[in-house]
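Hey, can you fold this one?
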Amino acid sequence: MFYWFLKTIVIGPIVRLVFRPWVEGEEHIPEEGAAIFASNHLSFSDSIFLPLVVSRRVTFLAKSDYFTGRGIKGRLTAAFFKGVGQLPVDRSGGKASNAALSSGLKVLRRGELLGIYPEGTRSPDGRLYRGRTGVARMALEGKVTVIPVAMIGTDKAQPTGKVIPRIMRVGVRVGKPLDFSRYEGMEDDRFVLRSITDEIMYELMLLSGQEYVDMYATSMKDRLVSAARAKARELQDAAKPGSAAPELEEALDAAEGKARPSRDATDDRADDGDDENRADGDADGDAPVVAAS
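Sure. Predicted structure:
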């Protein structure tokens, strides 16, 4: 009930009016029966725009962190995610993966539409990353078709970290249903699961026009975080007294030169000695410290 209230009365009309989302391939959306929507994942708002252009209810699997926040904000966040049709799942792996599979299969067995992001997380840079095989296993065990869906422009409307989205048109491109019934009974074959997943990701690449990267998005995020930390350490080291980068030292010397009294030009020999002593003092830690940003 709350889902339809948000979709048809509260969020839906406002989003349609402001963002005017467009949709292509609407004829590929089944009017009844279970199916999996496998979508690329560019933005937090993907889970809002996709259900908005589909007349039927779409249930997504979302990380459990969204449902366990504390305080008023946490309760409001949990209520919102439940309201827009998302189920909490633990993505830590192992038994948690089986629980996520079970939650998804319950939705499919009710004859409903299930939304999945095979990449497992939002793209860190707008490219399409390697899919995880859970979508393939769910398709085989649920005996349903997979409908590839490409979100267009949502990363520009609401980049990662941006709370208030930018007002612009976004799109949803729906592809032809993919039938994997030829692999029935092979849901425990990891090579089959990888083959199915790669086929889904290939269709998403064609639909979205994204560059494909054959690595997991989470691995790329780890690399970016490591690179950012290394850069921060470099900046901190450069800001320490006596260890500044050459460009920084030149800038400091130039600043000191501008502040030096005009007598520098009248007594060269005395200033040579002063400069040498000043340089020694800087090397011992008297140079100004520049804070890293």
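Residues 217-238 form the longest helix (22 residues). Let me know if you want another pass with a different chain boundary.
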